[in-house]
Amino acid sequence: MFRRRRRDPYLEIGAHTIKSVCSSLHAHDLLGPHTAGNISIRYPEDRIIVSRAGADLSRLHSPDLLLLGYDATSKDSLLTGVPARNATSEFKTIHDVVYKKFPQTNCVLHTHAFNTVAAGLISKEGALPFLHYYQAHLGQDLTPVVEWALPGTYELRVKIVESVLSYPRGKTILLRNHGCVVWGSTIYDAVKNLVLLDNACKLFVQVHSALPKGVPSNLEIPFRDMPLLADILNVLP
Q1: Residue 143: which of 151, 152, 135 has the closest Cα?
Q2: Phi/psi at 235 (nearest 5 deg)?
Q3: How far apart are CA 117 and CA 45, in angstroms?
Q4: Is 102 inside any structural domain?
Q5: Residue 193 lies inside a defined structural domain of this protein
Q6: SS3 for 20?
Q7: Structure confidence at residue 81 (pLDDT)
Q8: FRET partner for 161 with CA separation of 20 to 30 A, picked from 60, 108, 146, 182?
Q9: Is 21 within the bounds of a domain?
Q10: 38 and 57 Cβ atoms separated by less than 8 Å
Q11: Which tens digits make up the pLDDT trace of 28-84?
Q12: Looking at the 3D structure of the chain, how many domains does it have?
């Protein structure tokens, strides 16, 4: 018999916030297939609250949320204390990397939003073109396109680590034939970054479809101008 976890208001608020945000993302078509992707928020003592693999993000319930340590050894469902049957396979390949690399990050979202998947399918470069206001607010860096690897594999983990290290000021990643990863200092900051990325991807797909040879490089903003542009945008009303 398992003892019910002692009531923790922080856990309950975190669980309620995650469920509310996922419901809103679903209403705005930013999740993709209901059981694909995952969400996590940082919890004290090097732990995170994360949705389990296979959970329906559009209708999350408390048993769908896990409290995991960074070593992914603790796999108790959030509010009951009963060991969860399915831990999230994406934890070691996505969330772990971002939380360790960016200590200021408190939320990570991995979704299969339609426009991000589409952009990842047609992009021929290693990163999404820099699209002025959209990308300038996403960390003063390009959004890399991580080449395909099976979800949950060591190969995908290595590729994501390489992308994070190559674009240290970024807050977004596209996964080829897969979806996206975004993060932020708060859950609402992460959602804002997801919306910005999805809009940027939509614009990229529309321009790409209108140009027979794709998006020419002369439409892109030079990489050297990106920090200056971000500084300018930060002081605009």
Answers
A1: 135
A2: -100, -5
A3: 34
A4: yes
A5: yes
A6: helix
A7: 46
A8: 60
A9: yes
A10: yes
A11: 999 988 667 889 999 887 888 888 888 889 888 888 888 887 655 444 445 444 444
A12: 1
Residue 107 within any structural domain of the chain? yes
* CATH number of the domain that residue 14 is part of: 3.40.225.10
Encoding tokens for residue 234?
A: 């930060």
Residue 146 φ/ψ, nearest 5 degrees: -80, 125
Are 70 and 103 contacting, i.e. CB atoms less than 8 angstroms apart?
Answer: no
Strand order in the sheet with 76-77: 76-77, 65-69, 47-51, 38-43, 107-111, 179-184, 172-175, 143-146, 127-128
Q: At residue 44, what is the residue type?
A: P
Q: Which amino acid is at 14?
A: G
Owning domain of residue 204: 9-235
Please say whether the beta carbons of 91 and 153 come within 8 A: no
CB-based burial of residue 236 (10 Å sphere; 0-12 exposed, 13-18 middle, 19+ buried)? exposed
Interval 188-222: pLDDT, tens: 999 999 999 999 899 888 887 777 665 555 445 55
Tell me the per-residue pLDDT of 103-154, one tens digit each, with 9 for 90 and over: 999 999 999 999 999 999 888 778 887 776 676 677 667 888 999 888 777 8
pTM across the whole model: 0.82
- E strand map for the chain: 38-43, 47-51, 65-69, 76-77, 107-111, 127-128, 143-146, 172-175, 179-184
Q: What does the radius of gyration of the chain's CA atoms come to, in whole angstroms?
A: 18
- Give whole-number Cα distances, 38 to 94, 123, 205, 215, 221, in Å: 10, 24, 25, 31, 32
Q: What share of the chain is helix, strand, coil (3-state, %, to 5)?
A: 45, 15, 40
Q: Quick one: which of 34, 37, 28 has its CA closest to 179?
A: 37
